[in-house]
Amino acid sequence: MIFAGETIADTTGGYRILETSHPPVYYLPPSDVRRQFLVPATGRSICEFKGMAEYWSLAVGDHRSERAAWSYAAPTGSFAEIKGYLAFYASRVDACWVGDERVEAQEGDFYGGWITSSIVGPFKGPPGTMGW
């Protein structure tokens, strides 16, 4: 994943999480993320499946992307393996890849899913889809 000319993360050890009606979210191990570019962001949210999420902004030189990532410090039991792993909004960085394929950001920016050619919608996110 690239932001402001820097590789922020590069991994083969992440988790691909699937939830109802949206493309996969990739949770990346903290050891494979250049954490010096992460700044704690304000606000929290609750996922009914994973628990309380905290947010992170990216800061590279004069470039900043607010709430570009999120993580779970204490996920629910079913998701314990993603504790401390980071997920990034593809729309809030310059580029993300799954393998050699560049990712398309999920529309609407609520769920943060990464769309590749092997993923077929419809997805939640665009106007009119939040009530599915």
Can you put this structure into words, describing what you see?
The structure is a single chain. This protein has a single domain, classed as Metal Binding Protein, Guanine Nucleotide Exchange Factor, Chain A. The protein has strands at about 1-5, 5, 15-20, 20-30, 40-45, 50-60, 65-70, 85-90, 95-100, 100, 105, 115. The mean pLDDT is about 95. The protein is globular, with a radius of gyration of 14 Å. Strands 3-4-8-7-6-5 form a six-stranded antiparallel beta sheet, with no helix packed on it. The chain has a two-stranded antiparallel ribbon with strand order 1-2. A two-stranded antiparallel ribbon has the order 9-10. It is mainly beta and about 130 residues long. The chain has no helices and twelve strands.
